[in-house]
Amino acid sequence: MALQWLSLVATMWLQSINGTNSNFPAYSSELKRILSISQLQLNNLASASDAGKLLGWISGIAAAHFPLWLVLLIGSLLGLVGYGIQFLFLANRVSSLSYWQIFLLTVLAGNSICWINTVCYIIAIRNFPLDRQIAVSLSTSYVGLSAKLYTNIVDVVAPTSGAERAKVFLLLNSVLPLIGCIGAAPLARNVDGGKSRKLTRGFSTMFVITIVSGLFAVITSLGSVGSRFMPKEKIQQKCLIVVHDEGLASIENGEKSSDTQRNTLEIGVVEEIGAKLMVRRVEFWLYFFVYLFGATLGLVYLNNLGQIAESRGCSGTSSLVSLSSAFSFFGRLLPSLLDYFFPKSKRKLSRAGAMGAVMAPMCGAFFLLLNLHDVSLYASTAIIGICTGAITSISVSTTTQLFGAKNFGVNHNILVSNIPIGSFLFGDFAALLYNRGKNASGEGDCIGPECHQTTFIIWGSLCVVGTLLTFVLHARTKKLMQSHNRV
């Protein structure tokens, strides 16, 4: 049982250093200056990391045929190449790289995240088969601390120089995951913990440690934010987690005990269906657009955080990134806390309804951004961070509830394909509006409310539409579950 818990701790550490794409806003403005690129091109670089997740299914296949420690190392080496070459370029160790070479390296780096996430997900599922929802949520919540962790290190190493900060971010992105994967490799394996249900005390301890860690991150982030409203100083974001169907199928087929029946009741699976049938269902397309106008929209906002802060004359980009990271952590953790302390059998709200409840404050946050005060920017960023994290976490069990666990790998892969699609569409449209504002102001960079004002109105309106769709999906899900139970 000790190895069982150690494997979960290992996944938490891996997740905490695996959100390398989430710190992009902290150095994106400097990268834009060094590469002399437009806002549209910069947005495409932010979207390139999401595009790498379209190939995340390869990691799922690899995990089904190779040892998990090897899959970890492959993922970390992909990140070493993707981020490492960019670091060498900024450090003048590589003579020249074209924009499209940087773009492809970013795609490769984005794909590397999927390999590590896949291993973490498989370990949580296989080593905690009767509590996999809680184990997975606990593990994945730590990815929300990645940006906070990386930003704190950079603040110590390169506190003021924008160019140096960009170099250190890329160096850490390339090296830290490799070190973490080498250290965690011995624990990246299946552990037979038996069928014991005496895990309550262990999970309680994990929750206490996790909550304390999150509170520390939030308090220190708020502390740095508070200092921004004193005399100002001028200083300077799904993976697609793919698990091969055979892995999930073996778990499902192996759990025939009464405890397994309890898990099935908790998940509330409507039915087990494959991808071909899923895409023909109205529920899938409702769910697709809910996620597109919810989590994906939140990720696009966080990807553009650097330019949004700069256009508003806010110098605290790093503190904003830390703040969004800390609140995203609690957002990801929230579903597992509810799962643990409030069994689903005692709640009448479906997963779709829960997503709607989370998206409602997110709508208000986008409209709050129309207020140009820095307090509104920080408050909105915190709200969008926690809501995006919660939706991302809830979506794993939503896919299972609507379409079953047997084909989860393929089904969820299809769903989250809207992340790169939305990243390009929403981000590029925001960049076009930014360029229009820049032309109107006659400045090199767009400064003022006109840069993103229309964008916030559009994003807020789309989020409202997504929230309404969640309750349509909730009603249809309840109807389907009632019909399924009668059968």
Automatic annotation (TrEMBL):
RNA-binding found in the keyword field: no
Signal peptide limits: 1-19
Name of the protein this chain belongs to: Protein NUCLEAR FUSION defective
Pfam families named in the record: NFD4_C (PF23262), Nodulin-like (PF06813)
Key words, A-Z: Membrane, Signal, Transmembrane, Transmembrane helix
Alphabetized Gene3D superfamilies for the sequence: MFS general substrate transporter like domains
Record's keyword annotation contains Transmembrane helix: yes
Source organism (scientific name): Sesamum angolense
Domain NFD4 C-terminal residue range list: 266-481
Topology relative to the membrane: Multi-pass membrane protein
Transmembrane parts of this sequence: 66-90, 102-124, 169-188, 203-225, 284-302, 322-342, 354-372, 378-403, 415-434, 454-473
Homology family: Belongs to the major facilitator superfamily. Phosphate:H(+) symporter (TC 2.A.1.9) family.
